[in-house]
Amino acid sequence: MNPSTPREINFLPDWYLRRRISRARAKRQSVLVMLMLVGMAALWLLTNERRGQLVLYRNAIQQQALAAENQLLEVNKLQNAKADLSRQVRLYQKLARPICFSQIGAAIGAMTPDSVFLSDLDLAITSQTRTRVVKDDSLPKGAKPATVSESYPVIRIELEGHAPTNVEIANYIGKLAGCNLFRNVKMVYSREGKIGNALTRQFQLNMEVMLDRTYRVESGGEVAHVHVD
Fold it and tell me: Is residue 197 part of a domain?
């Protein structure tokens, strides 16, 4: 040891030093505890704020889901309404005809002369098939064009009556055939008949009314004329 170096003499007792060290340790622990409490409080505030944001987000999502559910219900209602309207349209198209039986009967009555007496009139809706050729300019020369079969509704009419002679029947058939309403007017038979004591010519006619077109009915007094548009 260098004799010139001054020596430090500690006059403080050991218990005092231990107390200072203990107080310093307690202060450091208090600071750490305070820091932990401040950190926990900040974390709680941050968590609470985040929770509030999540609650708002959840509420917004629930509102969107409710709105989407309501929109889905409206879409289902519209789809059901559309389906009902489609069924009604199909039913109307099935039931509705461009001309009704009463108009056909009125047209037949208007064209029937006084010398012809009708005894029976039967009308029924049937379906017929026709075949048409599909034109295709892209086909090679000599190739056979395609054909398409189409079904269309018609009203088939069976008409029975009496006339004095075959001349009146022929004139009556010509008059019916010349009308735009009737097609394929044909006589099934003409034979001797009798009304009371009078001898007549009993006849039966078949004809058709096409339902794949539009008709315009005009009334002129008691006579109904039917024309094809």
Answer: yes
* CA dihedral for 54, 58, 63, 68, sign (positive or negative): positive
Residues 167-217: tens digit of each pLDDT: 999 999 999 999 888 999 999 999 999 888 889 999 999 999 988 887 776
Which DSSP string do the residues of 169-228 spell out, in sequence order?
HHHHHHHHHTSSS-EEEEEEEEEEEEETTEEEEEEEEEEEEE-SS-EEEEEETTEEEEEE
CB atoms within 10 A of CB 190: 17
Task: List Cα–Cα distances, 38 to 27, 31, 44, 177, in angstroms.
Answer: 16, 10, 10, 108
Nearest to 181, CA basis, from 205, 202, 154, 163: 154
Q: Let me know whether 197 and 217 are in one domain.
A: yes
Question: Tell me, what CATH number does 190's domain have?
Answer: 3.30.70
Q: Which domain holds residue 211?
A: 101-137+144-228
State pLDDT tens for residues 197-209. Answer: 889 999 999 999 9
- 23 with 129, same domain? no
Contact 157, 177 (CB under 8 A): no
Does residue 175 fall inside a structural domain? yes
Q: At residue 46, what are phi and psi to the nearest 5 degrees?
A: -65, -45
State whether residue 137 is helix, strand or coil: coil
Q: pTM of this prediction? A: 0.53
